[in-house]
Amino acid sequence: MLKGLWSDRAFDQTSGQKSQAQWSGAYPPLVFAALFVFIFLLHLPLLQLPYFWDEAGYYVPAARDLLLTGRLIPHSTVSNAHPPLVMAWLALWWKVVGYATLVTRTAMLVLAAFALLGVFRLAERVANKQVAIASTLCTALYPVFFAQSSMAQVDLAAAGFIFWGLSTYVEGKLVPMVIWFAVAALTKETAILTPLVLAGWEIFGLIARRSSLRKLWLHGGDTGAGSVQRIASLLIPALPLGLWYVYHYRHTGFVFGNPEFFRYNIAATLNPTRFLLALAMRLWQISGYLHLWILTLPMLLAMWMLPPQRDSDSERPRIGISVQMVFYVVMLTYVVAMALVGGAVLARYMLPAVPLVIILSVSTLWRRLSFWPAAIACVALGFVAAWFWNPPYGFSPEDNLAYRDYVVLHEDGERFLEARYPMARVLTAWPASDEITRPWLGYTTRPMRVVRIEDFSLDEVVSAAEFRSNYEVALIFSTKYEPGPRRWDRWQTWTALKARFFGFHRDLPPAAAAQVLGGRIVFSEQRQGQWIAVIELERQEMQNAEVRVQK
């Protein structure tokens, strides 16, 4: 019945014209294979890079613990209560193929290709093949999606399952919808927002059934029993997620991760001022971040200034208003929710929303521009340029190829450190503290001894200088991307707000850190706003001289 109802609604979204044959339904393995080969070739130079930041700090250790012990709760790192599906996926690949970064990144590219197939299928269902191809291309090339595609993290995979769930939702296929949304929630807990907000949207639609707002709901003509069935189905994916939290609580005593994780990501974020600042950042991330404005701005101009193009005797159809409303509800939910929670305002948290923006924008350009393929080509080129070009403001290196610069810097610095000071105690901060104590992360061949500080701000370095006897050498690096002095950096209020709500600090440059610590720089390297340096303390230099004299 529901499938038939969706078939009726399909005529509304295409102005009464039957849709073309759908590639994702007729040839899904072929489309998936093409997508995988495409992104695999794009990522080929990156596939053997050691693990970066949160990969090294949580996801890879958690997956390795699962591989070695069979336990879902990690023990080599503090549990953050993230559902274990992606970690189990990686452990399975390592069990079958072997533990290697190449295997890890290939496994994640498989999930990325599946996510792109979900984008293609969703766009094809709500629009047509041309829009689906262009939307999938733009999504694959968008810097945040591109950088995350081969990284061992959970956000992109969860977003992919959400797209599959949305596709089955608009088709009215309840059983597959429940499965995809449940799998998404077991990939990352925040994915449960999508089915829950859709259930709320359905409830609101049921209440407004007799009003003029009725046309805004996807199944506006359904009976009350049909709406109740859909609402119940949308709530089911919360059950397996709830069981995971029960399991986690029984084994750790905590529901939502360790207390520090909960404080950083939830308790410390519930401040009205911080919410407004984070809300503005989230809106920017789904509308203009890393050249996304090259797509959204022309979309707005075309929608306001140009009439629809005509094919044969009719104008090109738009995505149905009811489907657009579903997209808007999901996007707004993630903007607001991710402004409320999450200690770091990371762009990857918005991956469930950005491809929806891309689909709507591409559809508008297809509908209103005669030269829309050229416009999409310009967007694609702009996205590729943003892989290499860092914005003139602070951002997370994991959002484009700046993460490669970080990894290469740390490879060079830590190999130098291991070769010259293999037995030294090293002053450093996370994540380098993990990188040089866990050889299986890919940076060193043997573990080194570490004295850890929080960062390389003036206060931390001065504090470390008071305990010089605890270490012989320091490995310092940029813990924040530093684009250089900007006019807004002189605004002390803004700097204070960033420090208070978003953990902003300024790392001491290597020369200043060496002076405070009482040592000299023996290695330094920098790449596009990031740097690393090794500082040898003076007494270590004297000991080395004594050893050379004795020899």
Please, what is the average pLDDT?
89
Query: What proportion of the residues is helical, as a percent range?
Result: 55-70%
Oligomer: single chain
| Number of separate strands | 7
Strand arrangement, major sheet = 4-3-5-7-6
- Number of H/I helices: 25
Low-confidence regions = 1-19, 545-549
**Which structural class matches the secondary elements?**
alpha/beta
* Structural shape: globular
N- to C-terminal separation?
88 Å
- Count of structural domains: 2
Strand content: 5-15%
Radius of gyration: 26 Å
| Largest sheet composition | 5 strands, mixed
Description:
By secondary structure, this protein is an alpha/beta fold. It has two domains: 2-13 and 24-398, no CATH class; 401-550, no CATH class. The chain has helices at residues 2-13, 23-26, 28-43, 54-69, 85-96, 101-126, 129-141, 143-149, 155-171, 174-187, 193-207, 224-235, 238-252, 259-265, 272-285, 293-305, 321-340, 354-368, 372-388, 402-420, 432-435, 458-465, 492-502, 510-517, 538-550, and strands at residues 310-311, 314-315, 425-429, 449-453, 473-477, 519-527, 530-537. It has a five-stranded mixed sheet. The longest helix has 26 residues, at 101-126. It starts with a helix and ends with a helix. The relative contact order is 0.10. Mean pLDDT is 89; it is low at 1-19 and 545-549.
Short note summarizing the structure:
Helices cover about 60% and strands about 5% of the residues. The chain is an alpha/beta fold and about 550 residues long.
Provide the fold topology.
Blueprint: H1 2-13, H2 23-26, H3 28-43, H4 54-69, H5 85-96, H6 101-126, H7 129-141, H8 143-149, H9 155-171, H10 174-187, H11 193-207, H12 224-235, H13 238-252, H14 259-265, H15 272-285, H16 293-305, E1 310-311, E2 314-315, H17 321-340, H18 354-368, H19 372-388, H20 402-420, E3 425-429, H21 432-435, E4 449-453, H22 458-465, E5 473-477, H23 492-502, H24 510-517, E6 519-527, E7 530-537, H25 538-550
Parallel strand pairs: 3-4, 3-5
Antiparallel strand pairs: 1-2, 5-7, 6-7
Helix pairs in contact: 3-6, 4-5, 5-6, 6-7, 6-9, 7-18, 7-19, 9-10, 10-12, 11-12, 11-17, 15-17, 16-18, 17-18, 18-19
